[in-house]
Amino acid sequence: xxxxxxxxxxxxxxxxIITDGLSLLLEGVSDMECVGACANGAxxxxxxxxxxxxxxxxxxxxxxxxxxxxxxxIKRDHPAVKVVVLxxxxxxxxxxxxxxxxxxxxxxxxxxxxELLYAIRAVHAGQRHxxxxxxxxxxxxxxxxxxxxxxxKDLSEREVExxxxxxxxxxxxxxxxxxxxxxRTVDTHRTNLMxxxxxxxxxxxxxxxxxxxLVR
Length: 216
Prior knowledge:
Order of helices and strands: EHEHEHEHEHEHHHHH
Number of strands: 6
Structural class: alpha/beta
CATH topology of the largest domain: Rossmann fold
Oligomer: single chain
Radius of gyration: 25 Å
């Protein structure tokens, strides 16, 4: 009968109370072992070079070398080591970035003990695990981008630029100066925008620009 391999976990967070808490949590788990705690990404890379590490629980905001840069280095130089980001950040752009770099999982720090242990086991087994809130955020962003594309799909690049400038409250002359076109040409673009979008006043154009994410 074979003995299950113990998963060697390295902790990375510049807050001692976090690494102490995670270390204590892992103490009572029979198939996991905490092999160390690091306060920055540079320490993580040094530890991986000298310790047998299977999974890194990686914070993002750390001094010297942050979690994103450390993840990139790990996946380049130590591809067998799994990385689970454990962060307060749940912004889709941040999540997407670490996914592109090859992170094996992403959890937010309000996750429960069971999900944390599940994620460690899952990535060690070659799977990926991204917490539900993170996935929901990515789906929501994708849907918003699709809606934005639909709104602007019939507009030329110049018309989109004029629409954004109009939404900022700029007049024809100011827009013309910014885009190096005449005020008369700006007015022509405005007329075309209203026709294409079936809108009959400036307020309507501003609403479309805001809905399309051209202004905040």
